[in-house]
């Protein structure tokens, strides 16, 4: 190993695991204590020294393989949240819109429920100056569990349905309505343009017409039934209507894509996901704490390591 050749120290994989879980257990305790204090309204963070123009919150899930007696229950979801500040970058005509890059990113993750993640994410946002930010944005998929998290913990944040998930649903609607081929692709491109440019009345009218053309789904229709897909996605877009105003989001210089949460989920997945990796639930929860602190650039890992007694004995 490179480490051994450079230092002359031999550390086994098991030793690395034990040290990681030891540190992760302490990090988890600190996280849980901070969340309990926040939820009890006991924490009052000082206003940030520099004004926060834009604070962005986002969330999604990954997959982790765990030790289970039933092989069908091995894959579990790790829930991940990110808070970052950014400088708005309003759209410039003639240039492809990319949105504002993150400045300082904080990350939280858990194997527990989405409600638990929401509490941790609210705590982290509060620590990052949520109440003092000029603009607050929550960008994500419109799935029910994430919507519930957002409405419970961030009711005053502006919601953005990330463009990738919006177009993913739209493309499956095109295939459900027309089947593979030029007609589906033409319909998809028209509706995508209407969404991007804010022609919502025409967009919803065309989607409703496609649903009517296919007909209502039978009560026992399979999830793959085109009628079920169209009916479900029509409700999806109606429910997430507030997050579709992409022209206004671009004008204000806010993010529209999921690149930050997707890249974070991938970073976490590189450490904990794999067919050869089988985790105990406590072990992966502890490891997630170390991983999220290491990939964040908010200084949380250095603050922990400099201040905690573990640093003197590790």
Topology summary:
Elements: H1 2-7, H2 13-39, E1 54-65, E2 75-86, E3 104-110, H3 114-127, E4 135-140, H4 144-153, E5 158-161, H5 163-178, H6 182-197, H7 200-214, H8 226-239, H9 246-252, H10 259-272, H11 281-295, H12 300-307, H13 310-313
Helix pairs in contact: 2-3, 2-11, 3-4, 5-6, 5-8, 7-8, 10-11
Task: Please tag this protein with its features.
314 residues, alpha/beta, 13% strand
Account of the 3D structure:
By secondary structure, this protein is of the alpha/beta class. It has two domains: 14-162 and 257-313, no CATH class; 165-241, no CATH class. The protein has helices spanning 2-7, 13-39, 114-127, 144-153, 163-178, 182-197, 200-214, 226-239, 246-252, 259-272, 281-295, 300-307, 310-313, and strands at 54-65, 75-86, 104-110, 135-140, 158-161. The chain has a five-stranded mixed beta sheet with strand order 3-2-1-4-5. The longest helix is centred in the N-terminal third of the chain and has 27 residues, at 13-39. The protein is globular, with a radius of gyration of 22 Å. The protein starts with a helix and ends with a helix. The mean pLDDT is 92.
In brief:
The protein has 314 residues and is of the alpha/beta class.
**What percentage of amino acids are in beta strands?**
5-15%
**Count of alpha/pi helices:** 13
Helix content: 40-55%
Order of helices and strands: HHEEEHEHEHHHHHHHHH
Q: Uncertain runs with pLDDT below 50, 5 residues or more?
A: none
Which structural class do you get from the secondary structure elements? alpha/beta
Please give the order of strands in the largest beta sheet: 3-2-1-4-5
The end-to-end distance, rounded to whole angstroms, is: 20 Å
Number of beta strands? 5
- The mean pLDDT is 92
| Major sheet description | 5 strands, mixed
**Outline type:** globular
Number of domains: 2
Compute the CA-based radius of gyration.
Answer: 22 Å
């Amino acid at each position: 190993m490179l480490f051994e050749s450079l230092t002359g120290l031999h550390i086994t994989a098991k030793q690395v695991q034990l040290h990681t879980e030891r540190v992760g257990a302490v990090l988890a305790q600190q996280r849980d204590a901070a969340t309990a204090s926040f939820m009890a309204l006991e924490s009052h963070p000082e206003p940030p020294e520099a004004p926060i123009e834009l604070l962005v919150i986002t969330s999604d899930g990954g997959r982790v393989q765990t030790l289970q007696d039933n092989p069908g229950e091995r894959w579990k979801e790790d829930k991940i949240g990110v808070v970052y500040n950014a400088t708005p970058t309003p759209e410039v005509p003639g240039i492809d819109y990319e949105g504002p890059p993150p400045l300082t990113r904080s990350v939280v993750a858990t194997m527990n429920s989405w409600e638990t993640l929401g509490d941790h994410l609210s705590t982290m946002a509060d620590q990052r100056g949520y109440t003092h930010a000029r603009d607050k944005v929550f960008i994500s998929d419109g799935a029910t569990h994430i919507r519930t998290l957002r409405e419970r913990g961030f009711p005053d944040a502006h919601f953005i349905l990330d463009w990738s998930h919006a177009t993913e649903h739209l493309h499956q609607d095109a295939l459900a309505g027309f089947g593979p081929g030029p007609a589906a692709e033409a319909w998809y491109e028209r509706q995508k343009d209407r969404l991007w440019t804010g022609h919502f009345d025409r967009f919803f009218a065309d989607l409703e017409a496609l649903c009517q053309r296919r007909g209502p789904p039978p009560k026992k229709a399979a999830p793959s039934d085109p009628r079920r897909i169209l009916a479900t996605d029509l409700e999806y877009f109606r429910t997430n209507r507030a997050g579709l105003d992409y022209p206004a989001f671009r004008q204000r210089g806010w993010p529209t894509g999921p690149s930050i949460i997707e890249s974070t989920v991938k970073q976490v997945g590189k450490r904990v996901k794999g067919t050869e990796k089988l985790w105990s639930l406590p072990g992966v929860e502890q490891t997630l704490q170390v991983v999220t602190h290491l990939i964040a650039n908010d200084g949380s890992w250095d603050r922990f390591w400099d201040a905690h007694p573990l640093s003197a004995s590790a």
